[in-house]
């Protein structure tokens, strides 16, 4: 299992690793690769095509590590987990604007399912900026 490259819908998260995998599962991120005003497609493309290694940082989290992260502007993923022990993380997502909810497509890509709230909000996206995703 792994969590693919993405930007968060909300501005920032607080996450807590609760179970470490035997191997793999490194949190990889590109700090502020885009901003609320600029998509920076060139650098994002480099990372997504495997040519932006200089932009990627890795963080091996341990159980109990608390992470404050601005995922709206920092492309990120969790690399493949190996071994029999799953990687578990509690993630609390925050936005300064009420009504921010992931699109149906993005939520399904990331979590494999959607809730009725995602379906009801489709086409009425509330975001803090005008970025595409
Ligand atoms: Fe994320």
From TrEMBL:
<protein>
    <recommendedName>
        <fullName>Fe2OG dioxygenase domain-containing protein</fullName>
    </recommendedName>
</protein>
<dbReference type="Pfam" id="PF23169">
    <property type="entry name" value="HalD"/>
</dbReference>
<dbReference type="InterPro" id="IPR056470">
    <property type="entry name" value="BesD/HalB-like"/>
</dbReference>
